[in-house]
Amino acid sequence: MKIVTCIKRVPDTEARLKIAAGRDIDAAGLKFIISPYDEFAVEAALQLREAKGGGEVIVVSVGEAAAAEQLRAALALGADRAVLLEAPPTLDGLVTARALAAELKDANADLYLFGMKAADDDQQQVGPMVAELLGLPCVTVVAELELGDGKILCHREVEGGIEVVEAPLPAVVTITKGKYEPRYPSLKGIMAAKKKPLEEKEAAAGPSRVRLLDLSHPPERPPGKVVGQGADAVPELLRLLREEAKAL
Amino acid sequence: MANVLALAEQRDGKLKKVSEEVVSAARTLADALGGRVEALVLGPAGVADVAAGLARFGADRIWAVEHDAFAKYEPDGFAQAVSERVRADDYFAVLFPADSLGKDLAPRVAARLDLPLATDATALSVADGELIITRPVYAGRAFARVVLEATPRLVSLRPNVFRPEERPRAGEVQRLEATTSPEQWRVRMRELVAASAARPDVGEASIIVSGGRGLQSPEHWHLLEALCEAMGPQCTLGASRAVVDAGWRPHAEQVGQTGKTVQPQLYIAVGISGAMQHLAGMRSAKTIVAINKDPDAPIFKVADYGIVGDAFEVLPRLTEEVRKLRGQ
Ligand SMILES: Cc1cc2nc3c(=O)[nH]c(=O)nc-3n(C[C@H](O)[C@H](O)[C@H](O)COP(=O)(O)OP(=O)(O)OC[C@H]3O[C@@H](n4cnc5c(N)ncnc54)[C@H](O)[C@@H]3O)c2cc1C
Ligand SMILES: Nc1ncnc2c1ncn2[C@@H]1O[C@H](COP(=O)(O)O)[C@@H](O)[C@H]1O
Predict the structure, then answer these.
(1) How many domains is chain A partitioned into structurally?
(2) Which CATH superfamily is domain B3-184 in?
C-alpha cells in the first residue's frame, strides 16, 4: 500500500495574527505547524499502513524552504520519506494543485490524502483539483475510511448526516476531523526522522491568477454587555434580544 | 459577458434556501454589471418545475438538467454537467453555494475549466467593472479581498450571509438533456445516514444553542434540547470541541476551526469558554449570547449579551421564558 499525503505549513491556529502593510501576515515570532486537517490525513495514512502491515507513506509539501520543518515533523510521526516542492506562497489553489499534480502524476500510489482545508487560506479546493488534474476519483470531507478490495468506503460528513461513499482505487480523499486523532512523535521517531530522505526540488508552479487587494482584521464586535447575574437576568436578556437585537 | 450563472440546489424535490441566497447575490451582481441572471439546477424529472420558483429571486432564465441519477449528489455527473453549461456561454461569473455540495463541486469544475476559484465568500462588490471578493482566511482571524484574473470568475458563497431578496424576473425555464452515463461514475453514494432529520444542520440553522464543557456531562444536554425546542424549527444544537472530543456530542455539531463555521442570526453559547478556535467558527454570528459562570471567560469579549451565572439555573428559566414568548 503506497499512500501520498499532502501537507501545508501554516501559522499556529492559536497565534494572534499581525497584519503587515495591509497585505501580509507578519511572520516575526510566529510559530508554524502542520495544518490541523493535514495532521489528521497523516494519521490516517499511518493507520492504514499499519492495518495493511506494510507499505510506504510519502509526505509532500509545496512551499518555501522552511516547510522542510513540517515535513520532518511528519517523518517523525512515522512517514517514510518526504518531498518539498519549493515555490513562493500563492493564494491560487489551482497553482498549488498543478505543482502537486506534476509531481504525483507518476507516483503510482493507491491513495492520495489531503486535509479537508488548509488553516491559512481556508480554500478547501486543492484536493479535488489535484484529483481532476490526475483524472482520479475523489471523495471529500471524510471522517473515516475503510479499505476494501481495490476500493475504499468513505464516511463523508455532509449537512444533515453522513454519506457512505464508495470509490475505486487509486483515489484522492480529503480528511476531516473524525477517527484519526493525531499521535505524538516519539523520541525515537524524532531521531529516525533525521535520517529519512527529504528530497527538495523546484515546484512546477505557474503564475497566480488570484490577486490580493488587501488583508484586514475582522471587524471588531462592538463591546457587549453583561445583562446580569443568574436566572433573574433572563427577562431582560429576552427583552434586549427582541427589541434591540431583533434576534427573536 | 455581463451575465451571471448561479448554481441552485434541490433536495427531496424542494429548493434549498441557500439557492435563493445565491440567485439573489447573482441578481445584485448582474444589476451592477448590466447583465442577466441564469440559474442552473440539476435534479430528477420534475426539477424544472421546482426550479421555476427561482424567477421570484431574480433569475431571467433557468436551466434545468433532468436525470433521475441527479436525485442525489454524486460528483462525477454533477461536475460534468455543470462544466458543460459553464463552457457553453460567456459568463462574467459563476456563483456556487459554499455548502457541502458546492464545496465539493466547485473545485472540480474549476480544475476542469482551468479557472481559479474563490471559496466561501462573505461579500461581493463591483468596482470599475471588476468583481471584488471578500473571504475570511486564517479561520476568520483575517479577511482577504481578492480579484480573480480569469473569466468566468468562479466563486462560492457562504450560506446565511447573502440575503434572499424577491426581485421577480421572467425566469424562462429551459430543459437541458443530460448527456451523462451514471454507469461510468466512479464515486457512488451507497447510503445516507441521516442525523436528526428534524433539525437543520448547524451550518445552516438561523439559531444555534451551543454547549460546552461547562454542562459537565452528556446527561445534561436535555436542558439545551429543551431550549432549542422552544426556539422553534429554525434552531439547532452546536457544541465545542471539548465536548465532541469527550464523545458527548457528534462531530457534526462541532463549531469552530476544526468544526463548522456558522453564521446564524443568534448564537447562544452555554458553558463555553470562548477559545480562539471556537471563536473562529462563530464570531460572525449576527448576535451572540454567552452564559457562563466565569465573568472573565473570553466568550464575553465577543458576546453582545452575557449572563454571568450557572447554566443549570439560567437554562430552565430561559427555556420557560422563550416558551411564554412564543406562546407555547
Ligand atoms: C488545532 C485546534 C483546533 C481546535 N478546534 C476547535 C473547534 O473547532 N471548536 C472548538 O470549540 N474548539 C476547538 N479547539 C479547542 C479549543 O482550544 C478549546 O479547548 C475548546 O473550545 C474548549 O471547549 P469548552 O469551551 O467547551 O471548554 P472549556 O474551555 O473547559 O470551558 C468550559 C467553560 O464552562 C464554564 N462553566 C463551567 N461550569 C459552568 C456552569 N455550571 N455554568 C456555566 N458555565 C460553566 C467555565 O467557566 C468555562 O468557561 C481546537 C484546538 C486546537 C489546538
Ligand atoms: N502548499 C501546499 N502543499 C501541500 N499540500 C497542500 C498545499 N496547499 C494545500 N494543500 C493540501 O490541500 C488541502 C486543502 O487546502 P486548501 O484548498 O488550500 O484549503 C490541504 O489540507 C493540504 O492537504
Answers:
(1) 2
(2) HUPs (3.40.50.620)
Q: Helix, strand, or coil here: B238?
A: strand
Residue A206 burial (10 A CB sphere; 0-12, 13-18, 19+): middle
Looking at residue B179, its pLDDT comes to 84
Are both A116 and A78 inside the same structural domain?
A: yes
- Same domain for A178 and A230, yes or no, is no
Pick B187's closest partner by Cβ from A137, A217, A242.
A137
Neighbouring residues of B317: CB distance < 8 A, sequence distance ≥ 6: A231, A234
pTM: 0.92
**pLDDT tens-digit profile of A131-156?**
999 999 999 999 999 999 999 999 99
d(CA B290, CA B300): 6
- A22-66 residue pLDDT tens: 899 998 899 999 999 999 999 999 999 999 999 999 999 999 999
CA distances from B285 to A100, A107, A192, B57, B281 (A): 36, 44, 46, 24, 9
The CATH homologous superfamily of the domain defined by B207-325: TPP-binding domain (3.40.50.1220)
For residue A91, give the ligand nearest its CA: 2
Confirm whether B3-184 and B207-325 share one CATH topology: yes
A195 and A236 together in one domain: no
Give the span between the Cα atoms of B239 and B97, in whole angstroms. Answer: 24
Verify that A141 and A229 share a domain, yes or no: no
Residue A36 domain-assigned (yes or no): yes
Q: What 8-state DSSP symbol labels residue B257? A: T
Distances (CA, A) of A81 to A10, A53, B54: 20, 18, 52
Mutate to test the interface with A, among B137, B223, B289 (most CBs of A within 10 A): B137
Give the number of other Cβ atoms within 10 Å of residue B181's Cβ: 12
Closest CA to A248 of B266, B68, B190: B266
- Provide the residue ranges of all domains of chain B, joining segments of one domain with +: 3-184, 207-325
Contact B57, B6 (CB under 8 A): no
CA A119 to centroid of ligand 1, rounded, Å: 19
User: Is the distance from CB of A125 to CB of B110 less than 8 angstroms?
Assistant: yes
**Angle at which helices B311-325 and B221-231 pack, to 10 degrees?**
20
Residue A241's domain spans which residues?
222-248
Are the C-beta atoms of residues A90 and A208 closer than 8 Å to each other?
Answer: yes
| CB atoms B120 and A216 under 8 Å | no
Residue A63 in domain = yes
Measured CA to CA, the distance from residue B261 to residue B137 in angstroms comes to 12
Closest by CA position to A167, among listed A153, A149, A146: A153
Instruction: State whether A131 and A234 are in the same domain.
Output: no
When CB atoms are compared, the residue of A122, A218, A248 closest to B325 is A248
- Do residues B117 and B29 lie in contact, with contact meaning Cβ atoms separated by under 8 Å? no
Cα–Cα distance measured from residue A131 to residue A135, given in angstroms and rounded to the nearest whole number: 6
